[in-house]
Specification:
With about 850 residues, the protein is mainly β. About 0% of the residues lie in helices and about 45% in strands. The strands form 20 sheets. Strands 2, 3, 5, 6, 8, 13, 17, 18 and 19 form a 9-stranded mixed beta sheet that branches.
Length: about 850
């Protein structure tokens, strides 16, 4: 069956309800009447359900109740005979009473009449809404067509009936006798589509109506509060089945809304308790025994299969005296619905006897007769054989006198003799299982590359295997090859663990023993001890011995002066790299730090002599200062002339506490250099634009500018990013510019390497560190007479390479290395150590070499 795609659901005020439903498209030819328009229908079923009313559209309750709501269990239904207000979702007892119909074969209109028992002392239920409401409800689709319901007396001006292809119903509130009378008021043809699969009936479970009611008591039996009304008279329908008690009235309706009674249609309402009591009819079956000797009957309820009586006992088996016997069995035919008499069937089965030897034959001898073997049927007992064999004077009566057993290669012998004195010998078959010469096959041990064999045995005479040798799997632990050690060995580096290597079998290649991890060597940091204060490395006290720090990881030095001293700075290779008591950098090279403390002014103290580049020229105690005859000799720098010290000798000797004396220099104005930039860029010196070429003095501060963002390059390497770049000039320099937005990266670039004197050189570099990076350290790695300048990396400091740390921590700028040496050449490589998001990295410039000598 098909269901309507949507149901018409209306919640209205009802006391006594008559609901008419047009079904003319289902009127089929019927032999019971002249024109086939009306017929009797005895299997109609009306279903009633109580569900919650959710207040949708103030009146409406739109849903396909039977399939989408009621039958599917999408909403709860309630016991209409024991309906309790406390079970409902609404607090005021409002609910919906839903009606569906099944099995209507043909009809014009269906009328169902309920009567509210208003004469009772208590009104158990009342309509949920009253007359006079002007609301109207547009429901969903019914068989794919729209339906409209409006109040009586209030014409529906929104929808023209001629435009509606479907059912247009009007509800009327007329009197206490008839509260609602819904009748069709437009032509019948094509009101609904007919079920294409079953033209005998309408759609199963067609939705008729939903009525809105309100409980007035805490519990009610709707079958008593709303008794079903009999349209044939002013009486109620009884719950006990009767001749015409349950009639669904069928009306003939016409276009002008006139109605006339037509034959009534029988119906039941299971949920309302209106349905005939179930009855059953017993059926008696007769069973006739073979030969007509007797009969038996079996009576069971209709629809139940009977149990047949016992059959006549089987007869036989009976022998025919000629090697066959016969058996007779009896059975009833299979049960067939509707067949009540069954005759017993005899089945005859004749087969050959099953003969077996029951007495062995006895051969005749010289003096005694013999007999043939006796055969007997195991089923019927039929017997043959046992005939006498006369004595035979020529027959020997052989008796066994001795015998030997056969082996796997030698047959055994049986020796006979007769009373007449003759003898004979018979030979037995070889016995393949009688082995007299069994030898053992030794087991073969499995190795790491070859399978083995279990112990076995075989007969040396016939070579038959007694116990087969089984192959044993390769034994991965029984190594027969050379054990090689140190396989995959690797030396530890500063940043990576090493490995001692595995022990490997040369035959199978398996690892016999795993090697051990060699911890990474890391970086060795040494902090020289001082009696003027204490120091720590990453929070651990230093002892003057080298301490290991993880490669590339940051480490922190702290200095705490003693009560009679103060901290001056950290010195590396004679240069103060920081004056901060807490100093953090990253571990890329072995470094030795000397904490510089100044003695208490009231006691011993130190005086430190440095140049303007923070290089330590001398560090003297107060006793050494008191013995000074002249100031220390300052370093010489190309392009600079020493001017003097920040204190003269007398002032230094008069010091009563620690102090730092600084050597000052003046620029050599005679030294000049040329700076060039590409077209479109300008050079600014002292705030004045100089065009694309400028001649400047030694160590002059120069700013190069471009109109847009880009990359500044020196010697082909990135030096800075942006539209401007500032640096100090110590040699001729050509600055390149590549326009275009770039993602700034930390860079360090070699600018110049120059010979200052026969034994002195100076290296100049520039660095640029973006804002999202943190500059931890900058400086140079240098060496003397270096064959491979690529070896100038922090990891090789202490192994032919030296480190110079720059104390200036500005993100952008230049830094220099000046050194004296007796070597013929000196090479240096600028570096920076930067950190971002907790990750440190070292970046190198290209190596530079200065050739010294006369």
């Amino acid at each position: 069956m098909k269901s309507f795609k949507k149901a018409l659901a209306v919640l209205l005020s009802v006391l006594m309800v008559a609901f008419s439903f047009p079904l003319t498209s289902f009127a089929l030819p019927n032999p019971d009447n002249a024109d086939g328009r009306y017929s009797y229908d005895d299997d109609v079923v009306l279903h009633t359900y109580v569900v919650d009313y959710d207040g949708t559209d103030s009146w409406g309750y739109t849903s396909n109740y039977y399939y989408d709501v009621v039958e599917s269990g999408a909403v709860p239904t309630y016991d209409l005979k024991h309906l309790k207000k406390s079970d409902l979702k609404s607090e005021d007892g409002t609910f919906a009473l839903v009606v569906t119909v099944e099995n209507v074969d043909t009809a014009d209109c269906l009328s169902i009449i309920w009567k509210y028992a208003k004469g009772l002392a208590n009104n158990d239920v009342i309509p949920a809404s009253y007359a006079g409401k002007k609301n109207k409800l547009t429901t969903g689709e019914a068989a794919g067509k729209s339906c409209v319901l409006g109040t009586w007396g209030d014409s529906n001006t929104d929808i023209d009936a001629s435009d509606v292809s479907g059912i247009n119903l009007r509800a009327s509130v007329q009197s206490l006798a008839v509260i609602l009378n819904a009748t069709p008021h437009e032509p019948w043809p094509n009101s609904y589509q007919q079920d294409e699969e079953n033209t005998e009936s309408i759609y199963k479970g067609q939705f008729l109506a939903a009525f809105g009611l309100q409980m007035q008591t805490d519990e009610v039996d709707l079958t008593e509060a709303l008794p079903l009304y009999n349209s044939s008279g002013d009486t109620f329908i009884n719950t006990t089945p009767g001749a015409d008690d349950k009639d669904l009235v069928v009306y003939g309706a016409t276009n002008d809304q006139e109605t006339g009674p037509s034959p009534r249609t029988k119906f039941i309402m299971p949920e309302w308790g209106l349905q005939p009591e179930e009855t059953s009819t017993d059926v008696t079956y007769t069973y006739n025994y073979f030969g007509g000797s007797k009969s038996e009957t079996v009576t069971v309820p209709a629809g139940q299969a009977p149990t047949a009586p016992e059959n006549t006992p089987a007869v036989g088996p009976k022998s025919d005296g000629a090697g066959k016997h016969t058996t007779k069995t009896y059975s009833w035919p299979d049960f067939v619905e509707g067949t009540t008499t069954y005759d017993e069937i005899e089945t005859v089965n004749t087969v050959d006897c099953d003969m077996h030897e029951t007495e062995a034959a006895v051969p005749a001898t010289h003096t005694t007769p013999g007999k043939t073997a006796v055969q007997t049927c195991s089923v019927c007992g039929y017997t043959t054989g046992g005939e006498v064999i006369p004595a035979d004077a020529s027959a020997h009566d052989w008796k066994v006198t001795s015998q030997t057993d056969s082996t796997c290669t030698v047959p055994g012998e049986i020796h006979y003799s007769c009373v007449c004195g003759e003898t004979k010998t018979e030979y037995k078959d070889l016995d393949p299982n009688n082995h007299t010469n069994i030898v053992t096959d030794d087991a073969v041990a499995a190795t790491c590359v070859a399978t083995g064999l279990t112990a076995g045995s075989h007969c040396a005479d016939c070579n038959v295997v007694i116990v087969a040798q089984q192959q044993t799997p390769i034994d991965k632990n029984n190594h027969v090859g050379e054990i090689k050690t140190g396989v995959n060995a690797k030396e530890a580096t500063r940043g990576e663990d090493g490995y001692t290597g595995d022990s490997v079998c040369a035959a199978c290649g398996d690892v016999v023993a795993k090697g051990q991890v060699i911890p990474a060597t890391g970086v060795m940091i040494t902090v020289n001890a001082s009696d003027k204060g204490t120091t720590t490395l990453n929070g651990e006290a230093t002892t003057g011995a080298a301490q290991k720090v993880a490669y590339e990881k940051e480490y922190t030095l702290t200095a705490t002066p003693a009560a009679n001293a103060k901290f001056v700075g950290w010195e590396v290779n004679g240069k103060l790299v920081s004056n901060q008591a807490t100093y953090t950098t990253a571990a890329f090279a072995d470094v030795t730090y000397t904490p510089v403390f100044a003695a208490d002014e009231a006691k011993a103290f130190n005086v430190t002599f440095v140049d303007q580049f923070n290089n330590v020229i001398a560090k003297l105690s107060n006793e050494e200062v008191a013995a000074l005859d002249a100031m220390p000799t300052p370093y010489e720098y190309k392009g600079f002339t020493f001017k003097g010290w920040s204190m003269d000798l007398d002032a230094v000797k008069a010091l009563q506490g620690a102090a730092t004396v600084v050597a000052s220099y003046s620029k050599d104005e005679a030294a000049s250099y040329t700076v060039t930039v590409p077209e479109g860029c300008t050079i600014a010196v002292g705030g004045q634009d100089m065009g694309t070429t400028a001649t400047v003095s030694h160590d002059a501060k120069v700013t190069v500018k471009a109109a847009n963002e880009g990359t500044w390059k020196i010697n082909g390497k990135d030096a800075a990013y942006g539209s401007e770049y500032t640096f100090f000039v110590t040699a001729d320099v050509n600055v390149e510019f590549v326009e275009g937005a770039v993602t700034a990266q930390p860079v360090v670039t070699a600018v110049a390497a120059e010979k200052l004197a026969a034994n002195k050189a100076r290296f100049l570099a520039t660095r640029s560190v973006p804002e999202d990076y943190n500059l931890l350290e900058s400086g140079f790695v240098f060496g003397k007479d270096v064959a491979d300048t690529a070896s100038l990396v922090l990891e090789n400091v202490g192994n032919g390479a030296y480190i110079y740390k720059n104390s200036n921590t500005a993100a952008d700028g230049q830094f220099a290395l000046t050194l004296k040496t007796t070597a013929s050449s000196v090479s240096a490589r600028a570096y920076i150590i930067v950190e971002k998001d907790g990750v440190s990295q070292v970046i190198y410039a290209e190596p530079q070499t200065a050739t010294l000598g006369a």
